[in-house]
Amino acid sequence: MNMGAPSETVPQPDTAPSTPRRGLLLVMTGASGVGKGTLRERWLAGQDVFYSTSWTTREARPGERDGVDYVFVTPEVFLEKVRRGGFLEHAQFVGNHYGTPVEPIEAALARGQDVVLEIEVEGAMQVRDRMGDEAILVFIMPPSLTELRRRLVSRATETPERIEKRLARARDEITQAHAFRYVIVNDDLDRAVAELHAVQRAERARQLPEEEWTSQDHAAARLAETVRSSALTDEDLKRVVES
Question: Which portions of the chain have biased composition (kind: Polar residues) (predicted)?
Answer without folding.
Answer: 9-18
